[in-house]
Design brief:
The protein is an alpha+beta fold and 119 residues long. The protein has one domain. It is 34% helix and 15% strand. The protein contains four helices and two strands. Strands 1-2 form a two-stranded antiparallel sheet. Helix 2 crosses helix 4. The model has no long low-confidence stretch (mean pLDDT 88).
């Protein structure tokens, strides 16, 4: 005779765990993986034509954040991390426009990190 295990999650316990300060480190580690995957696929301009070659590639930052995630109508503070690029032309590099082609390094980096979890 086999028994089926039963698990009943306690949302209060899980929520209090997600708001602890020690959870910033795993969030930061995940953000660093995304940043490390985005830097190699970032475009670097030709030094003969570009006044700031490599500015986009060197402008990645990981910032710890506290996010307000409402649950059942009540605000809940959760730990997290944000990968961002502070280059003035970051939006153009990610999305593209008429003058700059779409490189999408963040999108490619997220795909690479997600592929590491499958199979």
């Amino acid at each position: 005779m086999s028994y089926r295990s039963k698990y009943t999650g306690r949302y209060f316990g899980i929520g209090s765990m997600l708001s602890k300060p020690w959870l910033h480190r795993p969030c930061r580690d995940a953000a660093l993986k995304i940043m490390e995957a985005a830097q190699p696929v970032s475009p670097v301009g030709d030094p003969m034509e570009d006044r700031h070659p490599g500015l986009y590639k060197n402008s990645f930052w990981v910032v710890p954040i506290n996010v307000n995630v409402p649950f059942r109508g009540k605000p809940r503070i959760r730990s997290g991390a944000r990968v961002m690029n502070t280059a003035p032309h970051a939006w153009r590099v990610e999305k593209g426009d008429g003058r700059v082609p779409r490189y999408a390094p963040f999108e490619k980096a997220i795909d690479v990190v997600k592929a590491g979890f499958s199979a």
